[in-house]
Specification:
heterodimer; A: 116 residues; four-stranded antiparallel β-sheet; 0% helix; B: 111 residues; mainly beta; globular
Amino acid sequence: EPEVTQTPSHQVTQMGQEVILRCVPISNHLYFYWYRQILGQKVEFLVSFYNNEISEKSEIFDDQFSVERPDGSNFTLKIRSTKLEDSAMYFCAARPRSGTSDYEQYFGPGTRLTVT
Amino acid sequence: KNQVEQSPQSLIILEGKNCTLQCNYTVSPFSNLRWYKQDTGRGPVSLTIMTFSENTKSNGRYTATLDADTKQSSLHITASQLSDSASYICVVSARQGDMRFGAGTRLTVKP
């Protein structure tokens, strides 16, 4: 069964640096999402992406963050000028086109970002 | 304010026993409610999805119920197995796509 994959599995970066987290969605999926989960806390929605543009974003997703699909397959989350509080698990999710607004989402295994 | 509250926060049961996890929400307008299983250090895996018109949905030993009037949902696990040890997360979506995650119930199944 096809899976959503994410790289790297663990990223360590220094405060102030930029990081790019990568996701390879399932090939026929058209909607993409990023979530984060700070250790011990609940999963939080960051952004959804469809047709090469952001469709929804949360208040967390400020100018520090950006998303793109540079080559039509990979889906990336860029975090500029990282802060200590950006340390978290970042999950990518994807879903097929559907009549239901938030039908089945398939999550990747996550990237653990550690900012030191 | 759109909120999702889950109880209990954690639960320990013996292998083979049944258990029920609760989810109360204030998300409005309501689109759908999902239960996810999340193993430690892994991404969530969908167990069930229910829309407004559905009040029960089963997936193997997992049965979810939904009462849209009282804004409550439950996830019942039958004949628990050691592999059921995980966090179970309730996620409620509003029609505009706003998704709200509960904090999860941490289930531990002991032999």
